[in-house]
Design goal:
This protein is mainly alpha-helical and about 190 residues long. About 65% of the residues lie in helices and about 5% in strands. It has 5 helices and 2 strands. A two-stranded antiparallel ribbon has the order 1-2. β1 and β2 form a beta hairpin. α1 runs antiparallel to α2. Bound molecules: protoporphyrin IX containing FE (HEM). Protoporphyrin IX containing FE binds next to α1, α2, α3 and α4.
Length: about 190
């Protein structure tokens, strides 16, 4: 089923919540494991991040086929432009953050493993097997910086996105944007 102004397809609703909640969880785990140096969480973060990347790519194709969901009401131009701008930031940053993670790990010499399945072998130093030799240090360094920055960009965009959704739901009372994203129809 395609998205309409009255009702969104189950695919759009499922993609929205699966990706949204996964990103929030990955960001929380990412900051926690980095700040508290919990290295045991790294493989889990990387594995789930790599798998969710496939779902994110599917969503991009889905959006290209379906376009953006139509606005449920005639809002002011600046309001619609801001909402669309934030949606663009979110979709772009959610594509770039796993790519930067994959680049940081692979180019840093850590290889790529998804739940133990090795896609790219690590590159340990012959003198010290705990030390990895980067395949490309500058790219790994840039990707590392980008990964952290994109996390902050996504955080700000999510706050704006949730504020907008709650404003529609609680202030513009007749609005059904949030209900539509829960898979409900206008008057159900
Ligand atoms: C949607 C996917 C992802 C999100 C939202 C995400 C988010 C984050 C965030 C917010 C941090 C903390 C950054 C900081 O505080 O500097 C982090 C750290 C990290 N992420 Fe991801 N990540 C994702 C996917 C991946 C993937 C696919 C990989 C690698 C295969 C990866 C590897 C890492 C590593 C190695 C760190 C620790 C960096 C350090 O030690 O400084 N991430 N991630």
């Amino acid at each position: 089923m395609r998205d309409t102004k009255e009702k969104l397809s189950m695919t759009s609703v499922a993609l929205h919540w699966v990706i949204g909640l996964s990103i929030l969880t990955l960001m929380t785990v990412g900051v926690y494991m980095t700040d508290y140096e919990v290295h045991a969480l790294y493989p889990l973060h990387k594995s789930i991040g790599s798998l969710i990347f496939l779902v994110i790519l599917f969503r991009v194709i889905w959006r290209m086929i379906n376009g953006w969901p139509e606005s449920t009401a005639n809002y002011k131009k600046w309001e619609m432009n801001l909402a669309r701008f934030v949606q663009w930031i979110l979709i772009t940053a959610t594509v770039l953050i796993p790519i930067s993670g994959l680049l940081m790990s692979s180019m840093g010499g850590y290889g790529l493993q998804i739940f133990g399945a090795e896609l790219l072998a690590a590159n340990p130093s012959p003198d010290d097997p705990y030390k990895m030799i980067p395949l490309n240090g500058p790219i790994a360094g840039f990707a590392h910086e980008a990964h952290g920055l994109l996390g902050k960009v996504i955080f700000v965009a999510i706050v704006l996105h949730i504020t907008g959704a709650l404003k529609h739901h609680l202030v513009d009372k007749s609005d059904f944007t949030l209900r539509r994203m829960l898979g409900l129809k206008k008057n159900s």
